[in-house]
Amino acid sequence: MTRSDPALPVALTCGEPAGIGPETAVKARHLLGADLPFFWIGDPRHLPAGTSWREIATTEEATRVPHDVLPVLHHDFPNPAVAGQPDPDNAAEVVAVIARAVDLVRSGQASAVTTAPISKKALKDGAGFAFPGHTEYLASLAGVRRVVMMLACPALRVVPATIHVPLAEVPSALSADLLEDTIRITRNGLETSFGLEAPRIAVAGLNPHAGEGGAMGREEIDLIAPTLDRLRSEGMTIIGPLPADTMFHPAARAGYDAAVCMYHDQALIPIKTLDFAGGVNVTLGLPFVRTSPDHGTAFDIAGKGVADPTSLVAALRLAAEMSKGRT
């Protein structure tokens, strides 16, 4: 695991230049000021008109830029950006910026990586991007076999065991190996990056009522429960499998530190209901800290000046906090 210096700034990637990433980066700088140093990697031409920015030659310079000025690590793109209209010619550099940010944190020049939203379709069309999303690409860059996507806000942390899988394919995608790895990586992340000495993990069932003793499916009996029993025998504090519809009210949430769910919507619906604007996407299992705002490129509002930076601010704050936990 990369040991980062928490005094270093966070590296913020530009994301899709035609989306709301550049706008929210500027707004986040104004909101965070001197409280949290970060720098933006991208082409200054893609920033909103009138942005006060300063080019930096080294990441350390970002800590000395006035708090109302955005520090920019210049990265050339072929073309300017048109709000709401991704340019295929810019796609390869969007990917290159992500790789550059990872190199900076792994070489000790940044404390963590926060990624602005990308358009997977734009990257596939323009650069042949072969990954389902950021998470899988970052795992490839790090040479890690498996990572875990956590969504976090002050009220809840959730982890989907299967992520971008059609619902009809979830039962076949779910395996004891996948579930065990997901729980182990989640537990390790809670210990190393969130400072929890004995994390409590709640695990949802796959079927309604957690299968109701086999009446509504046998995955809980045949796969989930045996996996949880095996991990509990090692001393892990694991609760479940639980009916997902009773896991997320306040009294239930007080009993665990993170919830592992079986599929995407089972995990993301509760956290987006509780804190739609403030959720943060965290990748656990990487040798460095990575966070991201929990929203997309929002092409429909890009360039209009109305994008909400709340999730990006939360992502930057959490990245800085997690990097301190890894020192």
TrEMBL record:
GO terms for molecular function: 4-hydroxythreonine-4-phosphate dehydrogenase activity. Binds 1 divalent metal cation per subunit. Can use ions such as Zn(2+), Mg(2+) or Co(2+). It is found in: Cytoplasm. The keyword Zinc applies. This is 4-hydroxythreonine-4-phosphate dehydrogenase. Catalyzes the NAD(P)-dependent oxidation of 4-(phosphooxy)-L-threonine (HTP) into 2-amino-3-oxo-4-(phosphooxy)butyric acid which spontaneously decarboxylates to form 3-amino-2-oxopropyl phosphate (AHAP). Its main location: cytoplasm. It catalyses: 4-(phosphooxy)-L-threonine + NAD(+) = 3-amino-2-oxopropyl phosphate + CO2 + NADH. Its EC number is 1.1.1.262. Substrate binds at H134, T135, K272, N281, R290. Signal peptide: none annotated. It comes from Albidovulum marisflavi. Homodimer. SUPFAM superfamilies: Isocitrate/Isopropylmalate dehydrogenase-like.
